[in-house]
Amino acid sequence: MKFSLFPVLIFSTFFWACTTEKKIAATIEVSFSKEVASEAKDGRLLLMFSNNDEKEPRFQINAGLNGQIIYGMDVENMQPDEAKVFNAEVFGFPYGSMAEIPPGEYQVQALLHVYETFDLSTGHTVKLPMDNGEGQQWNRSPENLYSKPFKVTITENGPKDVQVIMDRKIPPIEEPEDTEWIKHIKIKSEKLSEFWGRDMYLGAHVLLPKGFDEHPDAQYPLMIFHGHFPDDFGGFRTVPPDPGLEPDYSERFGVEGYNIMQQQEAYDFYKRWNEPDFPRFLIIEIQHPTPYYDDSYAVNSASQGPYGDAITYELIPYIEKQFRGIGEGWARFLYGGSTGGWEALAVQVKYPEQYNGCFAACPDPIDFRAYCLTNIYEDKNAYYYESAHKEFEVPGHRDYLGHVDISLKDYNHLELVLGTKSRSGQQWDIWEATYSPQGDDGYPVRLWDKMTGQIDHGVAEYWKENYDLRYILERDWNKLGKKLRGKIHIYCGDMDNYYLNNAVYLMEDFLEQTTDPYYEGEVLYGDRAEHCWNGDPELPNHISRLRYNSMYVPKIMKRIAESAPQGADLTSWRYR
User: Fold this and answer.
1) CA-CA distances (angstroms) from residue 160 to 11, 27, 46, 120, 155?
2) Could you tell me the CATH number of the domain that includes residue 481?
3) How confident is the model at residue 495, as a pLDDT?
4) Distance (Å, rounded) from C-alpha 232 to C-alpha 219?
5) Is residue 447 in some structural domain?
6) What is the 8-class DSSP label of residue 444?
7) For the residues of 80-92, what is the DSSP string, one character each?
8) Which sign does the torsion angle of CA 93, 95, 99, 104 carry?
9) Last residue in a domain, options 411, 440, 465
10) Do residues 143 and 15 share a domain?
11) Where is the domain boundary, 408, 440, 465?
12) Distance (Å, rounded) from C-alpha 5 to C-alpha 10?
């Protein structure tokens, strides 16, 4: 049986015409009131829809299966009461056009992620969201404008003639207060202020050892816990779990009452911290958010400036001076997971003599031949596997059994909605903001086209020479090898949700098979362990991840005993 092509062509043309008409019909106007802001604003204007009433739409935007709907546009000099029109041509996620939203009842909400203007020392002027104490979270950043959600009904023609007025402003965040055990500091960084053309600050939460005031002559080693923006020192609690605390369920770990476990672990750490035989250290968690992300990745970069130097040569010495740190490289140690794992290893590699060991758990990609599932040097496209006759998307997220729920394209298209020019404040954009050269417009150069996934191999070569940690170690091992012996420790689950174990395998191949001198460290894997496995083969990951601040201490003590220089202070901080 044969079908005539002619009717198909007529139907296709009719369908295209209807779709075009439908797209033109979908419109929503968004403005902000004079009462909430009297001056013009620059920023990223976001419009959100949700058919889940449990939370505001702004708290339901993600790339997962339960994520809700969002559209975005850049605005400059947007005036009070000026209406910006969202129509079917504005790009969104997970539906590219508002005309594609299924009919039904939705909550609608708008938010303006406010940008500030920076005159960089490079001569560029850029517009970016300044962190306001929240750690670069667009949906709760103080000074951002937003509307109260309300219900709209979307028909088969999409939303039409809806007006959304942003008449609210997110309030400031209270800074944490000092306690007997935890102190909070903030310093102006001269290096960063010069780069950004305005005052820029670094902060830290400092956990003091037992007996700090009673032993004024003691000086202490320093443990640096790298990771995402900490609003206070985490995992330390001087009292048992709250009585009557209603247990919650952790969907991530499949554990009931995880909130109670977290409080109990924090209290248990407090008790360990006070045991007579526990070594006396300073532990710090650093605050170094940038206009691109909740932290800087702790290295120097073209678009973010000299964060590596600022942390190592300004912040760390200041803390050691204020709290009697030993102040020498042999007495400083780095650890962390995920972003913090990459930072711990990268800082150790970039400043090999300023630190005496890193413990890098589930690190972000440390070999860009395995940039998650992309080889940025050989692959042509990041979103699709190469094929002559079929299109198959590259996965972005899995569980420990390999079930995939997010693609790499999903992550990147959501980021493109949240912000152009690497300004989404999300994961793939911060890698660009850290690793890429600075473009002629002052923003990071894209590694790949954000819409299509087409890779720019010239940018990939820049990444390779400056931030591919495995390549850098192999290239420079003759110079770095002696300085890094015994300092590199890497841990990763072999079912990491983001496929980060693939890069660790490649790093291990180099470290174990080709280093001369031998690196004298360790690389360990957790069987069927997901993201954030940190080297404990005995405990489940949901518990071990709460013990970062004590689990590496025996290894650190061994390292100190083996490597401290002659005459080093090994006793003043060992009081009981």
Assistant:
1) 26, 5, 17, 42, 9
2) 3.40.50.1820
3) 96
4) 24
5) yes
6) B
7) TTPPEEEETTS-E
8) negative
9) 465
10) yes
11) 465
12) 9
Residues 202 and 286 in one domain: yes
Q: Does 512 share its domain with 461? A: no
Q: Position of tokens 């079917």?
A: 88
Identity of residue 26:
A
Question: Which among 526, 517, 530 is positioned nearest to 487, based on CA atoms?
Answer: 517
ω into 94 cis (within 30 of 0) = yes
Peptide bond into 517 cis (omega under 30): yes
Residue 100 DSSP label: G
DSSP code at position 295: S
| Tally of structural domains, the chain | 3
Here the tokens at position 380 are 């042509």
User: What distances in angstroms separate CA 113 from CA 35, 45, 85, 243, 293, one per listed residue?
Assistant: 18, 6, 17, 39, 14
Nearest to 292 by CA among 173, 421, 198, 200: 421
Residues 373 and 360 in one domain: no
Q: Are strands 358-361 and 488-493 parallel, antiparallel or unpaired?
A: parallel
Residue 327 in any domain: the answer is yes
For residue 155, count other CB atoms closer than 10 A to its CB: 11
**Is the distance from CB of 144 to CB of 151 less than 8 angstroms?**
no
Say yes or no: 56 and 136 in one domain.
yes
* Measured distance CA(18)–CA(206) in Å, rounded: 62
CA-CA-CA-CA torsion for 209, 286, 372, 384, nearest 10 degrees? 150
Distance CA 341, CA 348 (A): 11
- The count of other CB atoms within 10 Å of the CB of residue 338 is 23
Give CA separation, 306 vs 18, 120, 333, in Å: 53, 12, 21
Which of the 8 DSSP states describes residue 241?
A: P
CB 354 within 8 A of CB 329: yes
Rounded Cα–Cα distance for residues 484 and 346 (Å):
12
Fill in the amino acid letter for 220: Y
Quote the CA–CA distance of 280 and 478 in Å, as a whole number.
35
356 & 390 share domain? no
Distance, in Å, from the CA atom of 161 to the CA atom of 64, rounded to the nearest integer, reads: 30
Nearest of 175, 177, 234, 236 to residue 209 by alpha carbon: 236
Q: Are residues 55 and 133 in the same domain?
A: yes
Residue 243 domain-assigned (yes or no): no
pLDDT beneath 70: ranges in the chain: 1-25, 158
Burial class (CB in 10 A: 0-12, 13-18, 19+), 389: exposed
Tokens of 317: 């010495």
pLDDT digits (tens, 9 = 90+) for 119-153: 999 999 999 999 999 999 999 999 999 999 999 99
**Residue 251: CB partners within 8 Å, gap ≥ 6?**
none
Write down the pLDDT at residue 12: 33
Looking at the domain assignment, is residue 245 inside a domain? no
Residue 432 belongs to domain spanning: 369-465
The answer for residues whose C-beta is within 8 angstroms of residue 243's C-beta and 6 or more apart is none
pLDDT tens, residue by residue, 515-534: 899 999 999 999 999 998 99
**Three-state DSSP state, 396:** strand
**Sequence letter at residue 366:** I
pTM over 0.85: yes
Residue 380 and residue 505 in one domain: no
